[in-house]
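We store sequence, tokenised fold; for instance:
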Amino acid sequence: MFTHRSQLEHKAVGYAVAWKSGQTWEGIKTHMGFNQEAFDAECAALAYALQMAVKSDPVPDHITIFTDAQAAMRRMASYEPGLGQKYTLEARKHITMLRRMVSDITIEIRWCPAHEDVKGNEKADEWAKLAADEPDTLGVECYTQRAGDTPRHAISMTSRTQSED
């Protein structure tokens, strides 16, 4: 999985989580409004990626999440109060649940370079910008993109309800 956040000039913030399923890129994007920071969005994206793993059936025994935000990675390892704490606590809750579900699970949060043509990172970046700029009425949308599709025609969105989360 790849996570990314975006904060636009008018201060709208959003994040996306993207993953490859066969030849298709799938993901979720979330608009967070105008009163959050990009750092919060990246921490929220990491927490959401872990939540998705908890809800997987079956739960995988190895989870790797890539992010280009080293500060968010450091925050996930910190027990100190501060920025992004809400999302760090959520992430830890999900990690604890995963370890209870699969005792020998491997969970990695790894750094990947930004804007270096890492396909998953670029897809998450593209969708995070859409999340910040074009929220739906619920704030959350799911979509897929098949390999070879152009972004303009590739995104089919289905609004999710709160009960699906």
In short: The chain is about 35% helix and 30% strand. Strands lie at 2-7, 13-21, 24-33, 62-67, 106-111, 140-146, 156-159. Residues 2-164 form a domain with the Nucleotidyltransferase; domain 5 fold (CATH 3.30.420.10). The longest strand covers residues 24-33.
